[in-house]
Amino acid sequence: MSTSTLGTSVPQVTARAKVLGRAQYAGDIQIPGMLHGKVLRSPYPHARIVSIDTSAALALPGVKAVLTGADGPRVCWGTHHKERRILAEGVVRFAGEEVAAVAAVTEEIARDALDLIQVEYEELPALLTTEQALADGAPGIHPGRDNVSHEIRFARGDVDAAFAQAHLVHEQAYSTHAQYPGYMEPMATVARMDPDGRLQVWTSTQSAFLARARIASVLELPVSQVRVIQATTGGGFGGKIIEDANNLIASLLALRTGQPVRLVNNRLEDFVAACTSVPERITLKLGMDRQGRIVAKDVRILADCGAYSGLSAEVMHVSAMRSDNMHRLQHVRSHATLVYTYTPPHGAFRGFGGTQMLFALNSHIDTMARKLDLDPLEVHRINAIERGETSVHGWQVGSTGLQECLSQCTDAIGWKAKRGKPGHGSKRRGVGIAAAMHVSGNRTIGDWDGSTVVVKLNEDGRAFVHCAEADMGQGAMTMLAQLVAHELTLPLEHVHVVQPDTDSAPFAIGSLASRVTIVAGNAALVAARAARDKLVAQAARLLEVAESELELADGAVRVRAEPKRKRGIAELARTHIWRHGGEAIQVSGTWDAKTTMFDKQNLMGNIAPAYSFAAQAVEVEVDTETGQVTLVDSFVSDDCGKALNPQAVHGQSNGAAAQAIGWTLYEHLQLEDGRIANGNFADYTMPTPDALPMLRSGIVESNDPNGPYGAKGASETAILPGPAAIANAVFDAVGVRITDLPITPEKVLAALREKHHA
Amino acid sequence: MSTSTLGTSVPQVTARAKVLGRAQYAGDIQIPGMLHGKVLRSPYPHARIVSIDTSAALALPGVKAVLTGADGPRVCWGTHHKERRILAEGVVRFAGEEVAAVAAVTEEIARDALDLIQVEYEELPALLTTEQALADGAPGIHPGRDNVSHEIRFARGDVDAAFAQAHLVHEQAYSTHAQYPGYMEPMATVARMDPDGRLQVWTSTQSAFLARARIASVLELPVSQVRVIQATTGGGFGGKIIEDANNLIASLLALRTGQPVRLVNNRLEDFVAACTSVPERITLKLGMDRQGRIVAKDVRILADCGAYSGLSAEVMHVSAMRSDNMHRLQHVRSHATLVYTYTPPHGAFRGFGGTQMLFALNSHIDTMARKLDLDPLEVHRINAIERGETSVHGWQVGSTGLQECLSQCTDAIGWKAKRGKPGHGSKRRGVGIAAAMHVSGNRTIGDWDGSTVVVKLNEDGRAFVHCAEADMGQGAMTMLAQLVAHELTLPLEHVHVVQPDTDSAPFAIGSLASRVTIVAGNAALVAARAARDKLVAQAARLLEVAESELELADGAVRVRAEPKRKRGIAELARTHIWRHGGEAIQVSGTWDAKTTMFDKQNLMGNIAPAYSFAAQAVEVEVDTETGQVTLVDSFVSDDCGKALNPQAVHGQSNGAAAQAIGWTLYEHLQLEDGRIANGNFADYTMPTPDALPMLRSGIVESNDPNGPYGAKGASETAILPGPAAIANAVFDAVGVRITDLPITPEKVLAALREKHHA
């Protein structure tokens, strides 16, 4: 009787609380005396703050604090550059920048108080595009610096020579736009001073410890004086890693008022406050041989980080380098430039820069395959890096299921039968494919890419798991529970994963870079096996049998040769305490990837313990009269190494596919004079179910040698191939190549018109 | 520059939050939707519950639940015997027994609802005294059993032969009464179902883990489904170990209503609900040689546990045995009987049964010394067990400061000058002394007397300490912080001791048997030193120096021979994470006393890692016209091994002395027909400051080899000698011997009258 759920579909351990409405999101937390925060934001993309008069706001009954940049703190935050203030002082650099924060006894009063804050601005000229920002003589958006926030250049091999020898060279520019993360739960925080005068923060986050570090740094507190508890988190998609000011402002208000403060973005506020994905203009030049092998690659990227760099530099790094590792390349060159503009900041987003580049690369491969009269599928196959190979940037591929992903999704969609058969009439059909690669973990975060898990066995034989990697809906807690339950032969419901709390949980980096399954999963194995060893040792004492003759099975430790001689886990856990020299079983397991530190000089090194792959095939219908592109079918295949919980992988894959489709066809954040013009779900049109076909997904298990039971990060990869697959399918249907996302009916119609006129 | 506070007086780490009114006691916790509980109690000491009609109460708007015994659960609780129900069913056995519990939206409605519960009782005859309960043919208070709850008998050596050879034999009966713990904070709990459907309980307790175990057991939940968080606890004195039903009832109401429930005893309720100390009638017979050596001892105890045994059996064990170990004895015999009566249950109380017996023993020694014309001080000295000796019950005395305690307190009080000089007129003065012994830890709790402490070092070089031993005001958290700070050379304020939480803290037994300083203190040393070793290892990596050449000092690890080559703790903690194979420093330390399991058959064994001693000398003034005894001076000397925080030891010693004085002279819980008649602070007269002299206390440091830096349990011992010291002083003043506590003016006057008539 095995109780293990490993590899089987189970509902997430957090599902019941969520479905019953009991899960406590940060916004659900109520504390007596709690104030409500509101933020006043700049209406101008660039302006001098001449004066701020808060007296009328402060005089409003119920208002407890009105803070401006002049009230401090003056410590700046930001990942790559510390350049952003909690509250602006002197100057605002984007429409939406935080200018003042109010705490009041009700949300209504706080909102009313915002209207009473008198800010006098002197509006200044705003550089709204990268072109403007890079123009000769353009003034620096940040004092004493030019408008290049970050730059990456590298060249490997002899790129020019390789291009000269190529059979086919193709160059094309692609442009990608910002996407709003669109999580169900907007950013939310409740902060208070605890009885000991420490700052306690419940927040919606992808990393309690990164949040603690940032809050402490900006508020000039030792980290030990800050406690961050990850509240139930309703989605993150990269937007809740470290770039939102929500928990900083709530913390500041709590610190200054001494009262609990709740700050929950409404959707409009969240659109303005959230970092959206980095818009990139990518100029891609590939050289291929006659068989479609990529023999040379040249990449130029112009990326816009907005007014503050945030994580955009790291995102651009990924755009510039990651896709190179998917192929067997020798001659590659890249030049990427991140530029400040007076626009709302961009940053991390599911896929982390991979999406932008893989739109370009997969579009390019499709185009060149057609030019070479090759099946793009075969071009993907011939270029794909294989297991055991080391990429041009030093990445060691321990497993890859890319070939199988390509087969699986193309078989599923009917690639061979449907390709190149658009049909007749005004509604044409086409199919498209694309391939993708992602990391599972990333040592470039700092010279550690590990995780620590504590397993605690209670006297009833059930386990608690402490780990501060975040579950933001993706299923991290379920994964940990499954692994610990499996190792200890416990029913899944006998493992309780405790909400991350920086006071008690072991230090962790958090949920980003698809790292949690591989690093925390492995740490869970280490911890659970250490707990198992203690159970076995205790059974050896009770049964007076050598440990080597014992095994843990079916909830008991038994004599291997005499399976009926056994002791149950509850008895073992209890008697492990109640004996001479006893103690409760509470063990810690740490795992750190045996990867190499990224060489910053040469941009070289095996940065992740494993790499995930995905491929997607789609079928579209294009209405040639309206330009409307409708997705008819989509199948995304995800190589997650091993699906610990297939249902969760499918859920994530389909969610990722939907988000990719949204970005490709529907979602377009409109800036008008630097201001977000459609920051609401009526005008910012995320795909609703009627806009999507029944999304399909498949799992490929390449069994990574470094993964827990072979598992790698699942399904962040699945957002990557969709956009190009759709663009390629549109080309297959109507012969027009859209290189400028999103693929709107207007662009399709314009391209069709141009094609007919050509 | 040493920052260590070890051995110096520091304010408790909890003081600031308490003084500022910020500390969160259970009763301070407010949760949205929280209901308020109230308990209906039996007005009769013994009755059959004929019927309970809750319909009117349930119909009262705002009432959410009215539970009776018929609603279950039917699992019984109790330490020695599982015999007590959360809510009585069928029969009530004491006036005050819980009959029904209400949860309502306000406390007022809950109180009103109690009045609407219609209970029909058939009053039954009540056995209110041990004599009645033991009378032939007395019906069993618990079905199928006689009224002896527990019995202890032992004899060592040849007691009769020893008495036959004694120079002086004296026998006397003493009687002691129940004392209400009188903590500042009555029992209080808030319980709720958490989002995952687990029961979460904030309660005022001396042991979060014992509370969890009992709640889980009685509510028939796995312990893992229960989370107990010790709220700030305003005193315990034994009353909050495990015997109060408050957190059981709050938990039951939360479980049944699905809503948070607050149940806070008001003072009247607490008097009825709390277990008071065990009243014992002790018949003591001692044989002495001519020099005052005790050559034979015979003890008979008749103890009253009330309607349920609770911890009374364990208390009686202590009365029957512990004081034997203070002396060099060979021939001792004891017969102790614990008897049920239809009265409110008794149980644990500071001193845990020692107080009762030491009143008898010290009174007895004074009487016999006088008969032998010896200074009682010399009789104490000649009998006192010495370091390195093993007592008649197998206790191994690793340290004793009793002789020094005796010298210190008698010197302080002016014993030699004042003794036997009552003066003239109606106000006579006398001095008295008494000696005491206590345990520091106790293996009889279960075959483990250890503790586990987790030390977590943060990136700012500050430490968190997790330990579930309770601070109920005595200073456990400060002790832990001092030890960890000392080991890691941190300022005290850089160590934060986290509130006990059964989800995250390591398993612990809790605060009882004066065990926390020795067991948790030692565990803290183990953990802190393990953390130190990790700091040293990291410094060895950074400095490229062998660990053996390094030392931790003044907040840094330095090269011993080159003290300026060093790395600060913050840097070491941070870089211990951020490196290949890194992890945060979070280490666990366990220490278990190397004592022997009490042999239950022979009642023999070295049950504690150390034993504490105390002596007290007092001066009283007796008004021969009114019988009023006034304490003029008191000096209690406590052998705590090593005073880690002298101010805390003095505070505890003086508090213990005050509680002893209250019991001896003032506090008398009155039962009228089995009902508590003076359950309030107006009528139950705890000593107010005007009733006390400036209490004085002294510390004796006997440096126990098993203690952390020599420390033993501090100051529970200090409650033990006071009562006899006062009785002896009264005799010294006016020549009357009060053997029946409390020493009221009426008893003194009556004794004086009797003496004059004799």
UniProtKB/TrEMBL annotation, chains A, B:
Per its UniProt entry, which superkingdom is the organism in?
Bacteria
Instruction: Name a Pfam family for this protein.
Output: MoCoBD_1
* Xref: SUPFAM superfamilies: CO dehydrogenase molybdoprotein N-domain-like, Molybdenum cofactor-binding domain
Ranges where the Aldehyde oxidase/xanthine dehydrogenase a/b hammerhead domain occurs: 20-125
InterPro entries cross-referenced by the UniProt entry? Ald_Oxase/Xan_DH_a/b (IPR000674), Ald_Oxase/Xan_DH_a/b_sf (IPR036856), Ald_Oxase/xanthine_DH-like (IPR016208), AldOxase/xan_DH_MoCoBD1 (IPR008274), AldOxase/xan_DH_MoCoBD2 (IPR046867), AldOxase/xan_DH_Mopterin-bd_sf (IPR037165)
Please provide, alphabetically and separated by semicolons, the GO molecular function terms listed in this UniProt record: iron ion binding; oxidoreductase activity
Which PANTHER family does the record cross-reference, listed alphabetically? Answer: XANTHINE DEHYDROGENASE, XANTHINE DEHYDROGENASE SUBUNIT D-RELATED
Q: What is this protein called?
A: Xanthine dehydrogenase family protein molybdopterin-binding subunit
Source organism per entry reads Ramlibacter agri
